[in-house]
Amino acid sequence: MTELVSNQLNSKDKENSVEILCIGSELLLGSILNSNAKWLAEQLASIGLEHFRQTVVGDNLERIKQTIQEISNRSRILITTGGLGPTPDDLTTEAIATAFNTRLVESKEILIDLEEKYKLSSEKMPTINKTQALHPEGADLIQNPTGTAPGIIWDPKPGFTIISLPGVPSEMEKMFSINAINWLKSNLLIKDVIMSKTLKFTGISESSLAEKVGDIMSGENPTIAPYASLGEVKLRITAKAKNHRDAKKLIMPIETKLLKIGKKFYFGSNDETLASVVIKSLKEHSETISIAESCTGGALGAALTSIPGASDVFLGGVIVYSNWIKHHFLGVPLDMLERNGAVSSSVAKEMAKRVREKFQTDWGLAITGIAGPAGGTQDKPVGLVHFGIASQSIIKSIQVNFSSHKTREEIQQLSVIRSLDLLRLFMHNQS
């Protein structure tokens, strides 16, 4: 079991304190990412509820029971996810009941709902699924519109409520949004809302960006927190106010200052990605793009096609991995490949130019490099990548030497990020 933030709550904190308990050995083993805790934290913050702990516990009845009892003594609300299935390792409902010496009772309504769902799938309901109709006596049930695991809202003792939800993210999110969030708003005295906006930057390190923004980060409301991931730095601005309008007013001047400082490194906010920003910009300019990839092996195309509506502007791409394909399919001159090598400025430009001509697009974008872990030389080390970009008026190449200490996957991912940012900057300078 792991815990985040272990501050002891005082009586004032407990008034609206919420804890999240995610149940499942697969989470502890790292088999799946705990996206439920992240999503729930965002939803709680959006309605002004802060939570002080997130706990993960495996599929063990006694440990789940003990954790629930501990939380009941320090917090007002417990939200659990996972462990509501029909198999023997799904122990959440039983643990909740035994934690408060309450018997389990069967819900005929849930049982009928389960049987109907199986009829719709032309399958007989397994006997084992009947356990999902059990709930602690006195608990209110939350119907599951898409799955078989119902949830509960229950006050096992004064001043403490358990909201239990399935572990399947799509089911959990829908049930929380339809039922749980309304209960929280109706039953808790929520004085303020918490609003966040995340600004995203690339081409600059976390420390360099933090140094640039300097004193702006020292404020108490709004607060600014930096987060770094591979090839990207985020600055999250968080404000607390009486309502969303006032919170937005607090965020806006800070956002303006940060964007002025970040300048060309800023590419989007919140859920935007470099790929979505590029697709949006292409649509706004009524322009199209095609791509030629070597060391990224299709990752750039995958990034672009992950965006809905990409087909309006992304006409296609090719993976030209060998020199033979670069020459015979794209038309890169053989003597250029032999003289300069596939990983070179001239070949990157030629790839971008040729793919643009072949697909008849406004832009051509190309990547050729050494992703490793082998294949590098003293002159061309692992991590060396050339990017080519071509339009009617531009044929350029950019050389980047990513660290040879990066893994193959990291070099490939960084190459995708840099190529998209390269296109973004060229399009921005053109407009």
UniProtKB/TrEMBL annotation:
Protein name per the record: CinA-like protein
Record SUPFAM superfamilies: CinA-like, Molybdenum cofactor biosynthesis proteins
Alphabetical list of Pfam families matching this protein: CinA, CinA_KH, MoCF_biosynth
Family designation: Belongs to the CinA family.
InterPro entries, per database record: CinA, CinA-like_C, CinA_C, CinA_KH, Competence-induced_CinA, MoaB/Mog-like_dom_sf, MoaB/Mog_dom
Every MoaB/Mog domain range: 19-187
